[in-house]
Amino acid sequence: MENARTYFADAMERPTGGLGFTAVTAFTVSAFIVSNDNSLKVASIGISSIISVFMLLAFLLDGMHKGRFALKTHLIQKPLFLLFFWAVISLLIAHMDPRKAMPDSAYSYSWAQGLNSPAWRGLSFVLRLFLSIFAIEFIISNVDTPKRFFKVANLTIASYFLVCLFGLLQIALFWLFRIEAGSVVTEPHFRAGGYVGEPQTYGILLVSPLFLVIAAINKKCEGICFSKRFLKILLLFAIIDLVFTFSVSMLVSVLLALIVNSGDVRKRGLIIFIAAGGIVLYAFYSFINSVLIAKLVSEIFTHNSRTLTWNIGIKMLSDNLFTGVGIGQSPLLSGHVSGLINLSFDSLSFDAFRVTLLNSYIEWGAETGVVGLIILMYLIYRCYGAARSCGKTDEAKFVKLAYGGGLLALAVSANSYGGVFYIGCFNLVFAMYIAGMRVFNSPL
User: Fold this and answer.
1) How far apart are CA 132 and CA 85, in angstroms?
2) What DSSP string describes 344-412?
3) Is there a contact between 359 and 412 (Cβ–Cβ < 8 Å)?
4) Is 73 strand, coil or helix?
5) What number is the average pLDDT over the span 259-270?
6) What's the distance, Cα to Cα, between the start and end of the chain in Å?
7) Residues with Cβ < 8 Å from 167, sequence gap 6 or more?
8) Which of 85, 225, 390, 442 is the residue whose CA sits 20 to 30 A from 172?
9) What are the backbone angles phi and psi of residue 42, rounded to the nearest 5°?
10) Residue 192 φ/ψ, nearest 5 degrees
11) Which residues pair with 46 in a beta bridge?
12) pTM over 0.85, yes/no
């Protein structure tokens, strides 16, 4: 911890590297300031989206000062831009095609007001996608040296410690004193939601930097300023928090990503991870076994709210095969489509709640069609190619495990929730993966 105190004290005394890099550090912190309600938002807008707007302003100011506007080129840039342009085109087609007109029911939903109204929701999601992609590009362009890369990595670990510490205190207060601090679910059983309002969303925050911590323990990188002892304690905190979210999709995604990256994890690091998980499992075996296994079987093999939204999304895609219903439009059509295929579920109220498709890939396909899915698969393929062409230096291997592993875990878990492309922590992991590959001599 002494190294960490020295690092941050030194960072306060030195210039941060310009307005652009200052915006990057602000975005890094903002990625963890997330809530499902409006408690951590400004005018219902997430903090990371607001920082993305400041990034855009910084980019414009810097461009006017230099007399040119330019972003660093990289292997994933063209697929990202293509993804955005197709989202715009498919939305325009959806608005022009009379067969895709909004049903009357969409105008009567209580939540379909303001930017969520049929007139504005598509445009607002085009803007959200633009800000997400621009944030990724901006981070890649400004995190252009090893020093800057590790500054962001260390700031991420420091922020992650606070996120995990809050969850651990939340769990301890409930189990020891039955005090509900922050956002918890107590029925039908306890689930930690941290401060974000929902356990799965908290799980996304926990998964995003998890492999960064594992890589910092596993790989020898001089840029990481935290001690191995601190990082091992942080990893234990993160595992405990993640287990107590009881988010099956998050736990499964971490295990799969760990298996895929097992060749890059030293045996000692793998033993530490397994041992920490084993301690938590042993301490709460009967409770965890009865809840997690039952939840996994139920969510995959039974008719429930999640699988219902999958069926709705698949129906949307089949009826709008090539261009989809338009980005952001699926919640406005969910109730109508549910009626067409005679699907209903008592816990879903399409009028009172914004029912999103709980699978980011089905959601993207339903909203942008097969063409959008092909572009997305092309983007994933290019990311896979970046991993295969990863350099042989210790730093390049660190990037592959720290951010490639986290990106894989988030990509797998996206099968259980919608809108992964708009989440700040996902954008951060994605951007740092590409930035790290560029900085540490990979051909990007």
Assistant:
1) 14
2) --TT--TTTS----S-HHHHHHHHHHHHHHHHHHHHHHHHHHHHHT--SSHHHHHHIIIIIHHHHHHHH
3) no
4) coil
5) 70
6) 34
7) 192, 194, 202, 206, 237, 240, 241, 244
8) 225
9) -120, 115
10) -80, 130
11) 41
12) yes
Q: Which of 313, 308, 310 is nearest to 333 (CA)?
A: 313
For the cut 50, the answer to whether the pLDDT of residue 10 exceeds it is: no
C-alpha to C-alpha distance for 353 and 350, rounded to whole angstroms: 5
pLDDT, tens digit (0-9, with 9 covering 90-100), for 11-58: 433 433 478 999 999 999 999 999 888 788 876 788 999 999 999 999
Q: What are phi and psi of 189, to 5 degrees?
A: -155, 165
User: Which residues, 6+ apart, have CB-to-CB distance to 289 below 8 Å?
Assistant: none
C-alpha span between 123 and 328 (Å, rounded): 8
CB 364 within 8 A of CB 313: no
Residue type at position 83: L
Most confidently modeled of 155-169, 305-319, 387-401? Answer: 155-169
Compute the C-alpha angle 233/238/243, nearest 5°.
130
CA nearest to 235, candidates 255, 249, 215: 215
**CA 275 to CA 267: how far, in whole Å?**
12
Residue carrying the six token digits 């991420």: 156
Give dist(CA 357, CA 316) in Å, integer: 11
HEC string for 132-150: HHHHHHHHHHHCCCHHHHH
318-339 burial, b for 16+ CB within 10 Å, e for fewer? Answer: eebeebbbbbbbbbbbbbbbbe
Q: Are 226 and 3 in contact (CB under 8 A)?
A: yes
Has residue 294 got a pLDDT over 80? no
Tokens 């009826």 sit at which residue? 319
Q: Which residue has the higher pLDDT, 263 or 127?
A: 127
CA distance 123 to 114: 12
Pairing relationship of beta strands 45-46 and 41-42 according to DSSP bridges: antiparallel
Q: What is the pLDDT of residues 64-77, one digit of tens each?
A: 888 888 888 888 99
Give one DSSP letter per residue of 76-95, joined into a string. THHHHHHHHHHHHHHHHHHH
pLDDT at 219: 76
Mind listing the pLDDT tens digit for each residue in 336-373? 888 888 766 655 677 877 889 999 999 999 999 999 99
**Nearest alpha carbon to residue 210 among 8, 3, 409:** 409
Kindly write down the DSSP assignment for every residue of 162-217, as one continuous string: HHHHHHHHHHHHHHHH----SSEE-SSS-EE-TTTTSHHHHHHHHHTTHHHHHHHH
Tokens of 10: 């030194």
